[in-house]
Write a structure and sequence with these properties.
- By secondary structure, the chain is mainly alpha-helical.
- It has one domain.
- It is 64% helix and 0% strand.
- It has 22 helices and no strands.
- The chain starts with a helix and ends with a helix.
């Protein structure tokens, strides 16, 4: 009898093992995705908790000290006094000649800042990151559902997206305006829906609000990259041109409370100097950055690449397994399936464009070194971030397509288990190396006393008029988009 029980147990384990590689087989074990994905998300949240030292962040280094701790403390000071930080006397943290808080394009103004009324800047940073981590995970799950990704394919995507070097190192040095990165899965999902033929007002509303929310995170640069992707798609797929144009125009209208203050501040300047720091020294260096596991103490300018930029501006670490995954499925497998279906891989064009623009001073060259346009992206290596996310998502999709069409074997499955474990090990170790505590030790001390940071609101008619007009335009645009989306949605249900 015990032999029968042993055989039954072995059969059950084999079925569960098979279910991890196929959504069809997964349906016979409905508890499996709940446990698997729940454990994955929980483990990731714990890793971020360790990374941010559970909210006890040492602010006395890099951009934490120079910019972001003070900027977020301004929100806390304002909210505790039942107001909004319209002006901040700490011009050094503003990095402008003006004290107008919302005249800085990458200033965070998302709804989550309300939590600063109850949380200090350190705990808020952790909580905010976990909120955005949850939002990104939700849209990754939407992608999993749309493309029938198995638990293994989803796990590869989840780990590569959340813990690659691009997001980890920027958060490590205090780039709190990087929240827009977590909205990239939603952006790619909506782009894929557009390419699948969605021309509804509902899509226009979704994309417009998404671009607006990216801007609200302070992620002006991420907004620029997203706009470039949409613009390239509109140019190479004319049938999507007006759909993209509408989304872009309404995103601008929604963002007027942020755009107008920046515009009036910019137009008040006598001249603008070209300020471009460049990108990757070469494509070879870009490829090396996928597998080079740097530590903070080795990230000072000039130590890795011949550049005046610190290595955190180049780090896109995914490990050897991650790099193979991206190349094998995001390039070779995708090319094979598109060739087989005689379809042009539309998304490859914006990805290649972002790769090109992230190298050297190519971005400035394309814009003929125009001081206003070229200076919008001072550090062009950052543009690789969106290309990396698109590549990760496409790799997961074509990884699953490949799995579904090849003969399954125990050796192949065990190989994938080993590769997933190696990927997780590399990414976790890299994340821990770049924790705020380790980065603080490596980068030295720049003293920052948050107790002296206070808002300095004062009469400023032109600035307040711009904010008021922008808010009115934004609210009216919201009302219209919600009405148009609901109207077309109701019409489609009736038909």
């Amino acid at each position: 009898m015990w032999m029968n029980k042993l055989k039954q147990f072995g059969l059950t384990i084999d079925q569960i093992f098979q279910a991890a590689f196929s959504q069809k087989a997964e349906k016979t074990h409905p508890w499996l995705p709940v446990v698997w994905i729940g454990a994955l998300i929980l483990a990731g949240a714990i890793l971020w908790g360790i990374f941010f030292n559970w909210g006890n962040i040492p602010f006395d280094y890099m951009d934490w000290a120079e910019v972001w701790a003070a900027r977020m403390q301004a929100w806390r000071d304002a909210l505790l006094h039942n107001t909004i930080p319209f002006h901040l006397s700490d011009v050094a943290a503003m990095r402008t000649e003006s004290d107008r808080y919302f005249a800085v394009a990458d200033m965070v103004s998302s709804p989550q800042v309300l939590l600063l009324r109850w949380l200090e800047v350190g705990p808020y940073t952790l909580v905010n990151n976990l909120i955005l981590y949850g939002v990104a995970s939700y849209f990754l799950l939407r992608i999993r559902k749309k493309y029938n990704l198995s638990l293994f394919a989803f796990s590869f995507l989840f780990l590569l997206f959340h813990f690659n070097g691009f997001i980890v190192t920027h958060l490590s040095i205090g780039h709190l305006s990087w929240g827009g990165y977590y909205l990239f899965p939603a952006f790619v999902l909506f782009v894929l829906e557009l390419l699948d033929g969605d021309r509804s007002w509902r899509w226009v509303a979704k994309m417009s609000f998404l671009l607006f929310f990216i801007f609200m995170q302070g992620s002006f640069h991420h907004l620029v990259w997203s706009s470039l992707v949409l613009g390239i798609i509109a140019l190479i797929r004319w049938r999507h041109f007006f759909q993209v144009l509408k989304a872009g125009l309404f995103a601008i209208l929604l963002s007027m409370p942020r755009i107008l203050p920046v515009v009036i501040e910019f137009t008040s300047k006598i001249s603008v100097k070209l300020d471009v720091l460049g990108g990757y020294p070469s494509l070879i260096n870009l490829a090396q950055s996928l597998t080079y596991n740097s530590t903070p103490d080795n990230a000072w300018p000039g130590l890795v690449f011949d550049s005046r930029l610190g290595y955190w501006e180049f780090d896109i670490f995914v490990g050897r397994v991650g790099a193979i995954f991206l190349f094998a499925f995001g390039s070779l497998a995708m090319a094979f399936w598109h060739y087989k279906k005689r379809e042009f891989p539309v998304l490859i064009m914006p990805v290649l464009a972002l790769v090109f623009l992230s190298n050297g001073d190519n971005f400035a060259k394309v814009l003929f070194y125009h001081p206003v346009l070229a200076s919008s992206e001072r550090v062009t290596s950052r543009m690789i971030g969106l290309a990396l996310v698109v590549g990760q998502i496409l790799s997961a999709i074509y990884y699953q397509k490949t799995l579904d069409r090849i003969r399954k074997s125990i050796i192949l499955r065990l190989t994938q288990v080993v590769l997933l474990i190696l990927l997780a090990k590399d990414l976790v170790l890299h994340t821990l190396r770049w924790s705020v505590e380790n980065a603080y030790i490596a980068f030295g001390v720049t003293r920052r006393d948050l107790s002296v940071i206070h808002v300095s609101n004062h009469p400023d008619p032109d600035y307040f008029l711009a904010l008021s007009i922008g808010a009115l335009v934004s609210i009216l645009t919201m009302v219209f988009l919600i009405w148009a989306a609901r109207k077309t949605s109701n019409a489609s249900h009736k038909t």
